[in-house]
Amino acid sequence: MTLKEDLLPALAGNHLFSIFSQGEVERVLKHAAIEIFSDGERIFVQGEDPDKFYLILSGGVTITQSIPRKTECALANLGEGETLGEMSFLDRFPRSATAVANGATCLLAFEFASFDRLIAWDNELAVKWFWLFGRALAQRLREANERIKELIEGRPGDTGIPSA
Questions:
Q1: How many whole angstroms separate alpha carbon 50 and alpha carbon 29?
Q2: pLDDT at res. 78
Q3: Coil, strand or helix: which one is 139?
Q4: Is the CB of residue 103 less than 8 Å from the CB of residue 43?
Q5: What is the rounded CA–CA span in Å between residue 106 and residue 115?
Q6: pLDDT at 15
Q7: Which of helix, strand or coil describes residue 102?
Q8: How far apart are CA 147 and CA 130, in angstroms?
Q9: Read out DSSP for 16-83?
Q10: Around Cβ 108, how many Cβ atoms within 10 Å?
Q11: CA nearest to 133, candidates 46, 31, 43, 55
């Protein structure tokens, strides 16, 4: 039995994979690889060309963004069952942030080219993945909107945007 086969029962119970049948999970796993990162190790870096998106199996990931004339800013802390890199999968633009392992972290990695072939072949599976990506991105947008609101309310007139 391989490590990916060992994942089947765990993924079946994962909220993210609850919308998939066991057969769909098995097909998805054929297009995935397991990657292990040490605490503080970079998974990807802001500005680099993307080639993978990830599902966190264990551990955590801190998403940061470098802002000109400012220090690096933590945008989010992601945990087990959450995805990262899906925005770059969707738009194929360079990474908009840096992802760093928070403790020992195990990820399920999906190379774009392989995943493209999978969803091109299986429309039902593609719809489910895009629905999951949409929900994840909508949740992150809501959280970002709330942070912006807090910043504005906490410091009237200071949006954090440098003036020209």
A1: 20
A2: 92
A3: helix
A4: no
A5: 19
A6: 67
A7: strand
A8: 25
A9: GGGGS-HHHHHHHHTT-EEEEE-TT-EEE-TTSPP-EEEEEEEEEEEEEE--TTS--EEEEEE-TT-E
A10: 19
A11: 55
Secondary structure class of 127 (helix, strand, coil)? helix
Write the single-letter amino acid at 26.
E
**Residues of the chain where predicted confidence (pLDDT) is lower than 70:** 1-6, 8-15, 155-164
What architecture (CATH level 2) is domain 3-154? Sandwich (2.60)
Q: Are 24 and 128 in contact, with CB atoms under 8 Å apart?
A: yes
Label residue 81 left, alpha or beta by phi (over 0 means left) and psi (-120 to 50 means alpha). Answer: left
Two structure tokens written together for 126 = 């593609």
Beta bridge partners, 65, equal 73
Give the per-residue pLDDT at 8. 65
Residue 61, token pair as written in the block: 């990931």
Gyration radius of the chain over CA positions? 17
- Rounded to two decimals, the pTM is 0.81
